[in-house]
Amino acid sequence: MYRIEELIISYLSELAKKITGRNLLIFVPSVWVFVFFLCPCLILLKISFSDSIISSPPYTSLIDWISGNILQIRLNLGNYLGLFSNEMYIRGFATSVLIAGASTICCLLIGFPMALAIVRSSPKVRTILLILVVLPFWTSFLIRVYAWLMLLSPSGFINSLLMKFDLIDAPLQLMNNSYAACIGIIYAYLPFMIFPLYSAIEKIDYTLIEAAYDLGSSPLTAFFSIIVPLAAPGIYAGSAFVFVPAIGEFVIPELLGGAQTLTIGRLVWNEFFGNLSWPTAAALSIILLTFVVFPIVLTQRRKEIRLLRDVR
Amino acid sequence: MKLKWPNIILFFGYMFLYFPLVCIVIYSFNESRLVSVWSGFSLKWYKALFSDPIILRATFTSIKVATISATVSTIIGTTAAIVITRFGHFRGKSFFVGAVTAPLVMPEVVLGLSILMLFVGMDKFFGWPDGRGTTTVIIAHITLTLSYVTMLVQARLQDFDRSIEEAALDLGASPLKVFFVITLPIIFPSIVLGWLLSFALSLDDVVIASFVAGPGATTLPMIVFSSLRFGISPEINALATILMTVLTIGVIMAAVIIYRNGSSQENSVE
Fold first, then answer.
1. Which residue, of A31, A236, B99, B131, has the greatest Cβ tally within 10 A?
2. Looking at the whole model, is its pTM more than 0.90?
3. Is B77 exposed, middle or buried (0-12, 13-18, 19+ CB in 10 A)?
4. Under an 8 A CB cutoff, do B110 and A248 touch?
């Protein structure tokens, strides 16, 4: 009896020694991230392997005790196989990648000249221009999408302007297609492209460009052989900042893209809210994470590490 | 001003960024419901907005959720940033860093779905959170915004000269005193920025809230989103104008405070 008590007391005092301020500070964020981020991810993985049933919650458990002494773990791969055999999901992935890719390229084409022009302006104007780039970012994402709904809808600004000047008789179908979804994504994520580009271009030594001019290169050659390679880290970072959120985007394709622009984000939403098929929604999410998001993030991180090493 | 290519690009670039927003503001004062007709200046859509009990209740819920989640996530996020930058190496540190910053790249749909599944599972095993409501939205928003705060504060902590902290420690100040007298004032601007960003993100989120909100916890973006599915409406113009004004004033005020704080510190160092 005494021995057990002593053991417990010695264990507790050992534990008490570990409760320092330092460990407590590590403990609090760790627990939060573990419970509310890592556990949900594991549960998502678990549910992606279960069967869909009609009950509450609508999925079966993976682990069962059969007749008291057999532990049965049932992994249903059907959710994943179903995704690969159904054309709708494959098309959904293709649509998402295409829209996100096209938007990223457009952001780059709009953002690069803007970043270059901001760098070239005087320091005082530069601060104001940079603030003006961030300001729309603070004015609610939903409002920025809504702004385009107002411009593009059949009774919207562009159509009523064109009708007023008798340029068209019937409203043009400007929204409910993948172009409108692209415009919405470009508009929403352009600041994410401009900022990394700006900070990369700002660091470029301007004398290099002057030297190129002195040696007789044309502005275009100077641009492509000096500015673009030196701005490459900004190009990679900006593209990742636009592509990664764009690929899982739900709100913009839902509001601007119309019924046929089914992106992965919308498919996950529809499986969950429409079909009440939690396992399918979970499997779609897992595939989105493992094949699209993680590879991009990992290559981006590797590039950053290599860049840091080069700087040193 | 000469017509040079940078000016032309800037003109069109900022037109692209601001024209749609200006349209919203202008049409919020239009008497007519239609965008095609300008029938005179009117504040009636603002009046309609302020007498709509559903919108008022949702606004109150959203502000409550955003305030609580921004405050908690600022505290936890700042702690995480200090742990990452000041605690040297500990077991599982790289894993810790990865897990804290991962929600930044998670698609919102996936984050919302996975947290909802956690709540459903917890409900089954512990009987908590016992259905969904405001609490579940707050928890989900803290998880979302935590990584933003951590990144912002961490960047500031890595930037500033650590020798000031070390000097204070050498002169016999306790670590706690060093934190409150030296570290906290220096990182304060980024803490404020982190809080504001969390507040704005929480006030703005529709996807995660739609997954985890219970019937009694409809937030403002959820109302706006469902009404946008039926097309444009002048009430939303008015609401958007108010939100834009409030957020812009908030950001500018914060920028002024941060700027003054920064310059006064530089002056005192000089």
1. B99
2. no
3. buried
4. yes
